[in-house]
């Protein structure tokens, strides 16, 4: 049975697209046929993060409007043949996505794919609403920072009242916390909310902590999901997250400042 | 108290301040999230009715909606002016 995962946050710039790209690649690498959809109509960026921006011919809206078939629009990833990308349209028409159209495409994808990852745009407008509406699981990407935590809580409210599962009184969406851009050393100094603080406020199941990492920018510069950078801490954090989501029991990492005096003096990569 | 302690406790860390502010805010926003959408309209109409008989201020009336597992409570609180002449 296919599962639809929405990657959402409310606030912008917290790492939704980075996360969508990484977990979609992670799931595909584990052998599950996965599609990742960019819901940010008008501001498409997932293609750039996945490194397939020059291969976009048709997009999500073309498929909804019947101007292209799903197979024509889906782009097979160059690193993993189990992963397909459905890019967003660059149209400025806000109403290009309809609930009916999105539902139809997701139903079609469900026949062929194990996981469908929906990369939500920021905000709580139509695109964000449609990205989460059909979801089975929600990955809430949060930064340890006041506005991000507040927006995440608002998204939780929307997930529990405005989603298909909520409207049809089905089992609620499973919600998971992904705490990104985490700096253990700043937490230690009392300058940043700790993972326990954020969990206490949001009362969410923690799927993983992604440390603030230079490798994220390096990965997006080169159009490679950061999870493929297996040596990087962020890449490993996402690999852990995918494994935990699939039911593996892995201890949490990157929460404590493990750098000793030696590490502090000479730095880490 | 040692000198070191003085420096340590003189200022709460910014993270604990953030946590405190968020806890208050989130609790408040969660409680209003479950309120029925007719509440503001109800409050407005109630105020109009009451004003027919008593001269009360806009903020003299508060409508509170509370919900727990077993029941929902609608609490209405009207503060009447001190020396009210009834007609």
Q: How does this model look, in words?
A:
The complex is a heterodimer of chains A (269) and B (87). Chain A has 13 helices and eight strands. By secondary structure, chain A is of the alpha/beta class. Chain A has an eight-stranded mixed sheet with strand order 3-4-2-5-1-6-7-8, sandwiched between helices. Chain A starts with a strand and ends with a helix. The mean pLDDT of chain A is 93. Chain B is built from three helices and two strands, in the order H-H-H-E-E. Chain B has a two-stranded antiparallel ribbon. The relative contact order of chain B is 0.10. Chains A and B meet through helix 7 and helix 10 of A and helix 2 of B.
Reading the helices and strands of chain A in chain order gives EHEHHHEEHEHEHHEHHEHHH
Mean pLDDT of chain B: 78
* Rg of chain A (C-alpha, Å): 18 Å
- The DSSP helix count of chain A reads 13
Order of helices and strands of chain B: HHHEE
On the 0 to 100 scale, the average pLDDT of chain A is 93
Instruction: Enumerate the strands of the largest sheet of chain A in spatial order, edge to edge or round the barrel.
Output: 3-4-2-5-1-6-7-8
Estimated helix fraction of chain A? 40-55%
Q: Beta-strand percentage of chain A?
A: 15-25%
Share in helix of chain B: 40-55%
Q: How many strands, which pairing sense, and closed or not: the largest β-sheet of chain B?
A: 2 strands, antiparallel
Low-confidence stretches of chain B: none
Largest sheet of chain A: 8 strands, mixed
Q: What is the CA-CA span between the terminal residues of chain B?
A: 66 Å
Total beta-strand segments of chain B = 2
* Total count of strands of chain A: 8
Overall geometry of chain A comes to globular
Q: Could you tell me which chain pair has the largest interface and how many residues each side has?
A: A-B, 19 and 14 residues
Poorly predicted runs of chain A: none
């Amino acid at each position: 049975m296919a599962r639809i995962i929405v990657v959402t946050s409310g606030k912008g710039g917290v790492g939704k697209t980075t996360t969508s790209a990484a977990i979609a690649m992670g799931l595909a690498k584990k052998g599950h046929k996965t599609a990742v959809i960019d819901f940010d109509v008008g501001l498409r960026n997932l293609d750039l993060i996945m490194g397939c921006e020059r291969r976009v011919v048709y997009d999500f809206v073309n498929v909804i409007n019947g101007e292209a078939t799903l197979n024509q629009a889906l782009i097979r990833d160059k690193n993993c043949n189990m992963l397909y990308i459905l890019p967003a349209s660059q149209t400025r028409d806000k109403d290009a996505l309809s609930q009916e159209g999105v539902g139809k495409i997701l139903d079609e994808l469900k026949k062929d794919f194990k996981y469908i990852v929906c990369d939500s745009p920021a905000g709580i407008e139509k695109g964000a609403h449609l990205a989460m509406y059909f979801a089975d699981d929600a990955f809430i990407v949060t930064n340890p920072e006041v506005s991000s935590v507040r927006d995440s809580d608002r998204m939780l409210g929307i997930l529990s009242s405005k989603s298909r599962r909520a409207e049809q009184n089905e089992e609620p969406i499973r919600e998971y916390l992904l705490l990104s851009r985490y700096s253990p050393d700043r937490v230690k100094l009392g300058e940043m909310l700790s993972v326990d603080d954020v969990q206490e406020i949001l009362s969410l199941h923690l799927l993983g902590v992604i440390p603030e990492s230079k490798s994220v920018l390096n990965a997006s510069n080169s159009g490679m999901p950061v999870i493929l950078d297996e040596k990087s801490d962020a890449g490993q954090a996402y690999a852990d997250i995918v494994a935990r989501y699939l039911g593996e029991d892995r201890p949490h990492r990157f929460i404590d400042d493990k750098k000793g005096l030696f590490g502090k003096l000479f730095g880490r990569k | 108290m040692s000198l070191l302690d003085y420096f340590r406790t003189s200022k709460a860390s910014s993270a604990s301040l953030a946590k405190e502010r968020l806890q208050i805010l989130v609790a408040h926003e969660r409680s209003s999230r479950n309120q029925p959408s007719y509440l503001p309209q109800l409050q407005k109409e109630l105020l109009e009715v009451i004003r027919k008989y008593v001269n009360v201020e806009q903020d003299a009336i508060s409508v509170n909606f509370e919900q727990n597992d077993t029941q929902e409570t609608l609490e209405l609180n009207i503060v009447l002016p001190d020396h009210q002449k009834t007609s």
